Amino acid sequence: MPALHTRRPGAVTEFVLIFPAALFVTARIARERRRLAAARGPEAPPPAKRATATMLRMNAWRMNSYDGIGALTLGELPDPTPAPGEVIIRVAFAALNPADAFLAEKLYPAKPPLPHVLGRDGSGEAVAVGEAVTNVRVGDRVAVLWGNVGVDRRGTLAELVAVPADMVTPVPAGWTTEEGAAAPLVFLTAWQALTMWSEPPAPPAPGSVLVVSGASGGVGVATVLLGKAMGLAVVALTRSAQKGERLKALGADHVLDPTAPDLRKRVAAAIAPKRVELAVDSVGGTLLPEIIGMLGYAGRVSIVGRSGGDVPGFNPSTLLFRRNRLGGVVVGDYTAATAHPTWTAIVESLARLGQRPVIDQVFAFEDVKAAFARLAEGPMGKVVVRLK
């Protein structure tokens, strides 16, 4: 204890008695605070500081490796904040696509930094906008229309997602929020597959025959609906009789089983005397050579996917003599200048048919892995995840 100098001895005696007691009480309080802090873990930021969005944490399905969907973990990531030209969407629904699983298995061209968040489709409420955003206001019900969300930047399997404003569109009037999540990517893909063979892009002539493989999947259903809106004769291929009935209800003119050994003959008989002008194939595998064999002169195949795997022993000579052509669909080729008017045309086409996007099943957010399992089984339409 430091020396004390006073002219009043009584005061010195009193201070000497109180000072050690104060030290003891202060040390005891400090020990108690440390004990309580250790018991409750890291101290939360005070309320005033939590107004800074970067200090908040959202729930998200984290992709921490390229080991597939099974390796996804449900955890936390920092809330995104809007950069200039961006919109923050509080995600209500996210829709799954095969490309999500391909990316998680390192089978996709993009290799985003980890941890990543999958999800290219989503809809919800705009809760913040960055500088220079004029097409979206806070409170708007919006959907991700196109772009690199879920590919090169974090996606919609999270409570919040940051999206460039020119990649956002209002959910169409009369549609549910989950329908808004389910439609954009598959319908933009289907539109490109149907119109890519002309310059500028244009639908096939009305009455042309269209074959759609994997017709009950997300892109398949979208292709059937848009094909009918364009006045095409639609041949839908599905292995399920139950799904076949649904496809007929959606407007398919003919529904056939792609595993039939005489598939080509059945297609030819169904559309006689016409031949197939266009096929949209999302299967590949052993089915693609069969589809090529159905084509008439100058027939084309728009290739969307390969759910059936590699094409074994493909013979390029099958394209000769009839000038058949194969072409890949790249939805990433859309720009803001092309995606928005195309989307308007799609919504108008569905309205003319009196149709809406088809949803197979809606899963809870914590059941994302089960949702991907359903996607792998082969749904009738889109698989959707509900976040709230």
Amount of beta strand: 15-25%
The CATH topology assignment of the largest domain is Quinone Oxidoreductase, Chain A, domain 1
Tally of discrete structural domains = 3
In CATH, the homologous superfamily of the largest domain goes by the name Medium-chain alcohol dehydrogenases, catalytic domain
Helical segment count: 10
Rounded to the nearest angstrom, the distance between the terminal CA atoms is 63 Å
Class derived from helix and strand content: alpha/beta
**Basic shape:** globular
Could you characterize the architecture of this molecule?
The relative contact order is 0.12. By secondary structure, this protein is an alpha/beta fold. 32% of the residues lie in helices and 22% in strands. Mean pLDDT is 88; it is low at 1-54. The strands form three sheets. Strands 3, 4, 5, 6, 7, 14 and 15 form a seven-stranded mixed β-sheet that branches. The chain has a six-stranded parallel β-sheet with strand order 10-9-8-11-12-13, sandwiched between helices. Strands 1-2 form a two-stranded antiparallel sheet. It is built from ten helices and 15 strands. The chain has three domains: 1-43; 54-181 and 358-386, Medium-chain alcohol dehydrogenases, catalytic domain (Quinone Oxidoreductase, Chain A, domain 1), CATH 3.90.180; 187-333, NAD(P)-binding Rossmann-like Domain (Rossmann fold), CATH 3.40.50.
